[in-house]
Specification:
Length: 377
């Protein structure tokens, strides 16, 4: 695995930070998830903790601060998901931790960044997206803007931060020095939205919901089938639109590509003539750009995804996406690692960085760390 041997410290948080840690773990890095002492219930919501180790430390205590700083001296990467100033208040600023460990890559993953008017303000996915200008482009005509479900934090946050970490690792290979990554969701989303923003005058010039790619056109939309399911249509180019009409037994004269309203009415009636499975047979491997709208369960069972092993199935029947992208010299395992168990690895982690059993017991007795009840010294 390309990241094997790298040691990552991930401070517990919601959504973007844990997914960034997952990306690193999936490609071979060892990830230690540092929980707060009160994080036990929160850890149940971290559904991307598979394969990570867990330790609980009271970061606000003097001895807890010493434990954390000692832990970071052995790390290559730190992921911290807090607002501006939180790490500084705890005594863990980049200056402090990178003085201890000059090779440390200190990844700061926040909503608004480390500087700026909103840098100390709380926010969520919808807020970050609204600040990029992109939210104004999503939604039906005559309706209020509608955000996509939480993908903004993961794309603009997790993925961009992961990319920054990889770039910093490349730079460290040249210089031997770590650096601070100021990765924030607003800027990450804006950058990912470069194509949309640059194409606004060409493809999104009209009122929201009336353009080619936002549900305004009949050839880029979803249609209900006879059995109440849906097909997705994306026949933008003329040659693909011609193929679509051929499969629907319609002519261009009946449905010219620039007649959005009439086209939608005809397509709506046409797709209700067959079930989704029947339409799948009609459009199977055609260039009409028509595909079924699948549930997650159905997606894991679809022939294409089965052929590609795009998903794996957990013991409880739930679905997990496979790693992406695939590397030709990187062997990908279908093994699903168990999720991190809250503070289950506290003893092992501290032993690995030089603490004796007596020291660990005292830290636990003093409330500096927490040891899982099933673990014994």
């Amino acid at each position: 695995m390309p990241l094997k041997g790298l040691q990552v410290i991930e401070l517990s948080g919601l959504a973007p930070g844990p997914l960034c840690g997952k990306f690193l773990r999936d490609y071979g890095a060892d990830v230690i998830l540092v929980h707060k002492m009160s994080d036990g219930s929160l850890s149940n919501f971290d559904v991307v903790s598979n394969g990570k180790k867990s330790i609980a430390i009271d970061l606000k205590s003097v001895n807890g601060s010493h434990v954390f700083r000692r832990l970071v001296t052995f790390a290559d990467i730190l992921i911290e998901p807090f607002r501006k100033g939180v790490m500084e208040k705890l005594g863990f600023s980049p200056h402090v931790l990178m003085t201890d460990n000059p090779k440390l890559i200190y990844a700061r993953l926040s909503g608004y960044g480390q500087q700026g008017h909103f840098s100390s303000m709380a926010g969520h996915d919808i807020n970050y997206l609204s600040m990029t200008g992109l939210l104004s482009m999503y939604g039906w005509r005559g309706k209020h803007p509608i955000p996509p479900s939480n993908f903004s934090e993961f794309a603009g946050g997790s993925l961009i931060c992961f990319s920054g970490i990889l770039l910093a690792l490349l730079e460290r290979n040249k210089t031997g020095k770590g650096q601070v990554i100021d990765s924030n969701i607003v800027e990450g989303l804006s950058y990912l939205g470069s194509w949309l923003i640059k194409s606004q005058k060409m493809l999104f010039a009209n009122t929201r919901g009336t353009n080619i790619l936002d549900g305004g056109s009949h050839f880029y939309d979803t249609y209900e089938t006879k059995d109440g399911k849906f097909m997705a249509v994306g026949a933008i180019e003329p040659k693909f639109y011609d193929e679509l009409l051929s499969k629907l037994n319609l002519s261009y004269e009946e449905v010219p590509q620039d007649d959005f309203e009439n086209g939608r009415r005809i397509f709506t009636e046409k797709f209700k003539e067959k079930t989704r499975d029947e339409w799948c047979k009609v459009f199977d491997q055609s260039d009409a750009c028509v595909t079924p709208v699948l549930t997650v369960t159905e997606a894991a069972q679809h022939k294409h995804n089965v052929d590609r092993k795009t998903f794996t199935r957990n013991d409880d029947g739930t679905v997990t996406p496979a790693r992406a992208p695939r590397l030709s010299v990187c062997i990908q395992s279908d093994e699903i690692m168990p999720p991190a168990s809250y503070c289950a690895d506290t003893i092992t982690i501290l032993q690995e960085i030089g603490y004796s059993n007596e020291e660990i017991k005292k830290l636990n007795d003093d409330g500096v760390i927490k040891i899982n009840g099933s673990c014994k010294l």
